Amino acid sequence: MEPLARAIEAALFAAEEPMDAGALADLLGGADRRDVEAGLCAVQADYANRGVHLVVREGRWHFETAPDLAHLLRREREQVRRLSRAATEVLAIVAYHEPVSRAEIEAIRGVQTSGGTLDVLMEAGWIRIAGRREAPGRPTIYATTPEFLDHFGLASRKDLPGIAELKAAGLLDRIEDAEELPDPPGASESRGEAPQHRDEAGN
Fold first, then answer.
1. pLDDT exceeds cutoff 70 at 77
2. pLDDT per residue over 20-74, tens digit each?
3. Could you read off the pLDDT of 115-172 as tens digits, one per residue?
4. Residue 125 contacts residue 147 (beta carbons within 8 Å)
5. What pLDDT does 135 receive?
6. Which residues, in sequence order, are CB contacts of 159 under 8 Å at separation 6+?
7. How far apart are CA 44 and CA 40, in angstroms?
8. Residue 114 CA to chain centroid, in angstroms?
């Protein structure tokens, strides 16, 4: 491994949080950013078949346990908590439309959204308050978090699946009335339609 790649490896192991190429370049004495990016790719390739992987989420790099070994390191079995139908819909709307206000979420769902639903998603660490809309009343707007991307194994929101992939994975089983979701940001074509209007119970 080249000296710069070794330095990058050491810096990321010691870092308390993920770092982007620019921050690494500064930390390593003003190294050329392009050289740092090449070094990151070299380290990533070197760790591809190891017990830990070098991964990037929204331009920030960090080491994490290889997915097929993660279960070995869990000290206690995680209890799976299935999201309610409302929470699943709200999470999908935030992910595909962020930043989005509560009123905009309700307009897309066609039903009022309780504050408790948003609280559940924020407690899970999957959505966050992203500021306020520059509009009358300055409504709060919501966006997804790096933890959301990490949990679902996404490098960025551009990797969000399309409707066919979601159905194939069984992730839309509880949203029987939903016809389509929009394509991820950056997609060239739109395949989406908003869910049909209904009440909170789905009627």
1. no
2. 999 999 999 888 999 999 999 999 999 999 999 999 888 889 998 887 877 676 6
3. 788 888 988 888 999 999 888 888 999 999 988 888 877 878 888 877 666 556 554 5
4. yes
5. 84
6. 184
7. 6
8. 23
Is cis: bond before 18, omega within 30 of 0? no
Beta bridge partner(s), residue 141: 101, 131
Q: Compute the distance between CA of residue 28 and CA of residue 11 in angstroms, rounded to an integer.
A: 8
Q: What is the dihedral of CA 69, 126, 85, 198, to 10 degrees?
A: -150
Residue with tokens 């930390």: 27
At position 169, the amino acid (one-letter code) is A
Q: Burial of 176 by CB count in 10 Å (0-12 exposed, 13-18 middle, 19+ buried)?
A: exposed
Which of residues 151 and 82 earns the better pLDDT score? 151
Which domains occur in the chain, in start order? 3-72 (1.10.10.10), 85-168 (1.10.10.10)
Helix ranges, 76-179 (H): 85-97, 102-109, 115-123, 146-151, 163-168
Cα–chain-centroid distance for residue 143? Answer: 10
By C-alpha distance, which of 160, 143, 163 is closest to 152?
A: 160
